[in-house]
Amino acid sequence: MKKKPTRKQRKPKPELKWQTGAWDRVANFNFILPYQFLLLCRLVGVTPKQVITDFMDNLACGSWNREGRGAAKEHLINYFMAHGYGQPQYIEADISQLFKEMDAVGMLFPREGSGKMINRYTRWGDQYQNWWFKKWRRKPRPIKNSQL
User: Domain limits at 44?
Assistant: First the structure.
């Protein structure tokens, strides 16, 4: 019996012109996992892929799987800020506000909604996120000591 050839899925077009290369939304990574991380995942029975996916979804204040993840999300936001990510561009209060706004959108997910309502939410969310990104991208940056 011959297998039917699988149709290649097309890569979605970028919403914004900068979503290419390192910022491409569809990304395939090939890297070596730290051995201790791999051992830890095996000991606790969770795949490395699941840990990385949970990390990204929690840090992004995702909407689809929020139950019982508030504490983890807070720890990840603190982790992000402790590393100083974004602090050359924004002050700590601004970064905190970024996460609050991302979380607010995630909380609006229509849990009891029909498929039609979820589709509406998704379309609205995509439009809102583009507006939100542009709002923060245009925000004036703090003046560095070297610029004074």
Answer: 33-142
CB burial of residue 58 (10 Å; 0-12, 13-18, 19+)? buried
Alpha-carbon torsion 48, 106, 119, 19, what sign? negative
Collapsing DSSP to helix, strand or coil, 75 comes out as helix
Determine contact, residues 103/62, Cβ cutoff 8 Å: no
Is residue 67 a part of any domain in this protein?
yes
Query: Alpha helix locations (H) across 3-114?
Result: 35-44, 48-59, 70-82, 92-107
Which residue, among 98, 134, 105, 135, has the nearest Cα to 16 in the 3D structure? 134
User: If we measure between CA atoms, which residue out of 21, 23, 11, 13 comes closest to residue 137?
Assistant: 23
pLDDT tens column, 24-59: 878 888 889 999 999 999 999 999 999 998 898 888
Do 104 and 66 meet the contact criterion of CB atoms below 8 Å apart?
A: no
pTM exceeding the 0.85 threshold for the entire prediction: no
Residue 80 included in any domain: yes
Question: Kindly report the CA angle at 78 between 77 and 83, in degrees rounded to 5?
Answer: 100
